[in-house]
Every structure is written in structure tokens, then in C-alpha cells.
Recover the amino acids of this structure.
């Protein structure tokens, strides 16, 4: 059995993974709050997609990969299968998106919350173990069943709490505190699952195929950066509740104001107005044809 090191670079990788999970949780909770105030189904779907990407893509999957940077096995290189790695990303985002759709459609109740938590938690656990299956090394992986089950339970509980927070938390300080708790839960699930892992190294060293960590690191970091910038831009560009209230006030004020009326001239049966303008500059002198008969 090979020796495993989960903190090859010390506390740098777990600290960065926790920071990513907190950042993704903050953005995801803010986007989820916009789902509740959206007026159309299209707006709800848009904010749900952004929230799923923030929670599933950044808070869960990016955190998982960042923590895996510190994972090392004695006397063997670690490579990753690119299609399986991409599939683990899709699993995380889709699972969170479906969970948000379950709890976000209709009135929130315990049945919806538990159903969404179970589905999302199962998706998060599937993401984790799919990402682990994407590893290629000179050995075979084994798992302790009890710890695997414990990691799945933690994933379900954490997902249920995350969905409840996404549908109820609104204030900035509460969102930040909730993100700190969610970061602990996500990292706890990850390292519980990692503690269940054992590696039986093969005696004969074979060729390890797949993409190295350095090859995957640059595109993953760029995807996270562009994703975070895009989420921030979408949040800053979207109208707030104050903007909607101001627009509604201005619309109501325009409707309340009377329409401008065209002034009408008073009747002038004997031509007094015309006579009063004779002799003024710019007033034409009446011709003989316009002069009334005596």
C-alpha cells in the first residue's frame, strides 16, 4: 500500500480551496436571491443558471480541484483523464441547478427542501468520486465503505442547508456568514471522502497517460476567473429593487400627469384682434380685396 499525502504543499492548497468555496457560495447565494425577485420565467432561469455555476462550478468543483493539487502518492505520477474531469464539472453544475429548480419553483416547504437536498447531495458526491476516477496513476484505488457513506451524508446535509440558505438569506452579513459555513461543509465533505481513499501501488511501473496538473491548471484558473468576473458583471448590471421602485414611481408619475392641451383662440366675430395688429412691425397691410365694403 502506497503512502498518501493530502497536503503536499502545506496549508496553501486547503486555504485556497476554502477561499474558492466561500467566494463561490457568496456569488451563488446572491444570484439565488435574484431568483426570488425575478418577474419572468426567463429571468428566473437566467439567475438560476448563474447560481448553479457559482455554487456547482466554483464553490464545489473548483474547490475540489484546488484541493487535489496538494494530493500526492509515493513514487508515482498523477495524471487526469480530461473527458472524465469535464464530466465531473457538468455533474456538479447540473446537480445544483436541478436542486435550485426543485426548491425555487413554488412555495418552499420541507418536502421540496429535502428532495432538492438529496438530489443535489447525490450529485455533489458523484462529482467528487467521478473526479477521483479521472485520476491516472501507477496503482489501483480502494475506498473505505463507512467513510464513503459518511461523505455522502455530509454532502446531502450540506446541500440541503445550502439550498435553504439560498432561498431564505437576503442580507449581506447573513450571506457572508452563510458562505463561511458552506465553505466548511464543502471542504469537510471533500476531505472526508479523501480520507476513505487508499492506493495499492503496482510493482511494475507502467506508463501513466493523461493530462498533468500543470496542463489542466491554466485553463481551469482562467475558467474560474472569467466565470467570477462574468457573475460580478451580471450582478452589477442587473437592476436592483431600488432601481425598480424608482422606475415604477416615474412611470406612475407620468401616468398621473395630465396630457398637455393645445391652446384654442377665443372667438373674434368682429375682427377686433386683426384690427389691433394693424400697424405693428411685420403685419401685412390689408389689400383692397380684404377690405370690407362700406
Amino acid at each position: 500500500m502506497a503512502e498518501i499525502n493530502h497536503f503536499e504543499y502545506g496549508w496553501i492548497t486547503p486555504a485556497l480551496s476554502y477561499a474558492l468555496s466561500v467566494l463561490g457560495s457568496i456569488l451563488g447565494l446572491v444570484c439565488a436571491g435574484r431568483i426570488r425577485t425575478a418577474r419572468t420565467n426567463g429571468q428566473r432561469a437566467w439567475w438560476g443558471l448563474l447560481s448553479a455555476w457559482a455554487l456547482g462550478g466554483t464553490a464545489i468543483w473548483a474547490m475540489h480541484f484546488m484541493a487535489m493539487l496538494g494530493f500526492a502518492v509515493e513514487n508515482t505520477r498523477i495524471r487526469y483523464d480530461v473527458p472524465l474531469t469535464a464530466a465531473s464539472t457538468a455533474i456538479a453544475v447540473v446537480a445544483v441547478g436541478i436542486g435550485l429548480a426543485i426548491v425555487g419553483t413554488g412555495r418552499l416547504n420541507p418536502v421540496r427542501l429535502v428532495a432538492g437536498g438529496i438530489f443535489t447531495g447525490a450529485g455533489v458526491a458523484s462529482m467528487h468520486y467521478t473526479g477521483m476516477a479521472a485520476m491516472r496513476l501507477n496503482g489501483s484505488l480502494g475506498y473505505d465503505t463507512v467513510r464513503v457513506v459518511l461523505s455522502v451524508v455530509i454532502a446531502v446535509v450540506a446541500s440541503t442547508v445550502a439550498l435553504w440558505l439560498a432561498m431564505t438569506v437576503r442580507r449581506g452579513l447573513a450571506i457572508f456568514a452563510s458562505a463561511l459555513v458552506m465553505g466548511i461543509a464543502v471542504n469537510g465533505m471533500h476531505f472526508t471522502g479523501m480520507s476513505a481513499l487508499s492506493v495499492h501501488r503496482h510493482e511494475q511501473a507502467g506508463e501513466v497517460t493523461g493530462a498533468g496538473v500543470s496542463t489542466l491548471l491554466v485553463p481551469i484558473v482562467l475558467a474560474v476567473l472569467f466565470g467570477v468576473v462574468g457573475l460580478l458583471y451580471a450582478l452589477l448590471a442587473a437592476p436592483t429593487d431600488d432601481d425598480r421602485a424608482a422606475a415604477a414611481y416615474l412611470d406612475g408619475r407620468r401616468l398621473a400627469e395630465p396630457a398637455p392641451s393645445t391652446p384654442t383662440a377665443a372667438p373674434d366675430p368682429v375682427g377686433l384682434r386683426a384690427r389691433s395688429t394693424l400697424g405693428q412691425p411685420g403685419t401685412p397691410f390689408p389689400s383692397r380685396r380684404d377690405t370690407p365694403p362700406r
User: Anything to note?
Assistant: Residues 95 and 123 are 5 Å apart (CA to CA).
